[in-house]
Thioredoxin peroxidase
Amino acid sequence: MAERLVGKQAPDFTMETAAGNGADFGKVSLSDYKGKWLVLFFYPLDFTFVCPTEITALSDNYDEFKKLNTEVLGVSTDSIHSHRAWINTPKDSNGLGQLNFPLAADLTKKVARDYGVLIEEEGIALRGLFIINPEGELKYQVVNHNDVGRSVEETFRVLEALQSGGLCPMNWKKGDKHLVAK
């Protein structure tokens, strides 16, 4: 039986990263995001077909995330060397080009397992997206089949709803009224 993550402290992690500039390597831990919101997303593999559409869309919208005090971190079970090669491959050759956030390498598959997105028999992650608040509490998760990409618009909608601090009905958007508990 799967364990509930939403409403609990997000599972801690430390992973090596390939910077979005395609040149640098680093390390990242959950604690590095203390005081900020984090959109943590998992994708199955580098050099695939659906993944670059999501990763580049998130990168293209990075300035909007920053305005919401939010960082973005992508994770797969590939190595930092594969991430770097993919970032340095032009978009017209199934590459990513420069990104505005790092890609983390979960070679041990521990982080994907901790977040409940690892397909054990394949050794890759499902498409999982998690929103973690500035105190490290996991506030939102969505996990879907690897054939279907996620929506940046929906990620923004949910992030803004969580940051609004009110009760948000279905399809709530920034500027809409909150529900009043009776």
